[in-house]
Amino acid sequence: MFIILGELRTILYQDVVWFGYSTTLNKKVEQLVLSNASFRSIGNRIYQTKVIRTSINRPNISICVLPLGKGKVDL
């Protein structure tokens, strides 16, 4: 998948915005994606890649586990 993205990057105009998003990348995998998907060097100048990291704490999201009665589902 990364190689295909990298090839696509080479045929796009330089001013085309290249956006990637993930909620689970650690630093090692982030570097792998940045290099193999042909993202530009990281920086704050025009045509450079900006990496934005935020907290994974999302208090508005929850997981609920509820028992189901045998043979029926009540949602």
List the helices and strands and how they pair.
Elements: H1 2-11, H2 27-36
Overview of this protein structure:
There is one protein chain. Helix content is 27%, strand content 0%. With 75 residues, the protein is mainly alpha-helical. It has one domain (1-54). The radius of gyration is 20 Å and the shape is elongated. The chain starts with a helix and ends in a 39-residue tail after the last helix. The model has no long low-confidence stretch (mean pLDDT 79).
> How would you classify the quaternary structure?
single chain
The helix content is: 25-40%
Mean pLDDT: 79
Structural class: mainly alpha
Instruction: Give the N-terminus to C-terminus distance in angstroms.
Output: 38 Å
Q: List the uncertain runs.
A: none
Number of strands: 0
SS summary, helix count: 2
How many domains, in number, for the residues?
Answer: 1
β-strand percent reads under 5%
Overall outline = elongated
The main pleated sheet reads as:
none
Give the H and E element order. Answer: HH
Cα radius of gyration in angstroms: 20 Å
